Sequence to fold (338 residues):
Amino acid sequence: MKRDSSLVTKAAITAVGSYVPEEVLTNHDLEQMVDTNDEWIRSLTGISERRIAKTPEHSTAFMAIKAAQDLCQKNNINPASIDVVLVATITPDYQVSSTAPYVATEIGATHAFAFDISAACSGFLYGMSTAASFINSNQYKRVLLIGADKMSSIVDYTDRTTCIIFGDGAGAVLFEPSTNDYGFENAIHGNDGVGRDYLNIHDGGSLHPINEHSFSAGKHYVRQEGRTVFKYAVKHMSETSNQLIAKNKLSPEKIDYVIAHQANKRIIDATTHHLAVAKEKVLTNIHKYGNTTAATLPLLLADFESSFKKGDKLLFTAFGGGFTWGAAYLTWNYDYKN
Ligand code: UT7
Fold:
C-alpha cells in the first residue's frame, strides 16, 4: 500500500555547529615533507591548506564534541533534550568501541542513544537519510548528526599522493520535525563493492589483521588509486544528482546551492558541469580545509549558514570509500539570525 506522504513528519535542519583544529598545514609546509609543490597541489586539487589536530588528545571524538557544543551553545539547545546522536566517521577513537556514545555522554545528551555510521566520505550524507528516518517515524524529536574525521591519524606523511589531500575537522547539525514544511525531501544512495580495492586501509581489519609486517610496509595507512576514485566519483555524483533532480522535477535554475563533498576541486567542477548548475551556486571551502571526509558537508553548512534563506533548495552529493555515494535534496528551514 502506498504511504500518504502528507502524514510523514518532515525532518528539518534547525541548527549547525562546527570545529576545526587551530593548526594549519600549508602546501609550503608539505613541500618540506614530500616531493611536491604548491602549484601542483593547488592546480590539481584546489587545496591551499588544511587543519591538522596535532595534539594527540584532540581525537575525532574531541572534535565531534566541540562541534556539538558549538551547535548547542549558539542555539540554546539543552543536550539532555537530544534523542539520538549519530557520528559519521572512519577514524573512530577506538576500534570496537563506537565513538558516538562517548560524544553523547561528554556533551550531556543523557537521554540519547548513539551509534556510528561508517560510509567514508558519504557518511554524513547517509547520516542525513538516517536522521530524517528517525524523525519521520514520529518516535524521536531531536537527532544530532555529526560528521567528524581525524584523517591525519591514518595518513602517511611520506606518501605525496594522499598526504596533500586530507585534513581534520568536524561539523554537526540538528534535525527536528519541520514546522513549516521545509526540510529533508528525499535522497538516492548507491554503492559498488568493487571500490574496496581502490581506497582502503589494507591491514587492521578482519581480512588482513595487523601483523609484524604491517607497519614496515605502511599498510596501516589509507591508500587510494586516485585516478580511479576520481572517475568513479564524477560519474556517480553527477548521475545520482541528475536522477534526484529529475525525481523532484527540479531544474538547474531552481537549485539555490550545491553542497558537494570536498575531495578535489576538479571533481566538484566536473560533477557540477554535468548538472549545468551556475558556478556561483556551488559552495566550496576545500582551499582551506582539504578533504575532511565525513566532515566536508557539515563544514560547508557551517561556513555558508548565513547565506541560506528559508525555502532555499539545497542539493547535496558525496562519494567515498566502499564505494559509496549519493545525493540528497533538502529545503532550508530558517533565515540566519546572528
Ligand atoms: O574523498 C574520496 C577519496 N579521494 C578522492 O576523491 C581523491 C580522488 N583523486 C584525486 O583527487 C586525484 O587522483 C589526485 C589529486 C590524488 C591525483 O591527481 P591525478 O590527476 O589523478 O594525478 P596522478 O595520480 O595521475 O599523477 C599525475 C602526476 C604523476 O606523475 P607522472 O607519472 O605523470 O610523471 C604523479 O607521480 O603527478 C605526480 N604526482 C605529484 N606531483 C607532485 C602525484 N602526486 C603528486 C604530488 N605532487 N603531491
The mean pLDDT is 96.
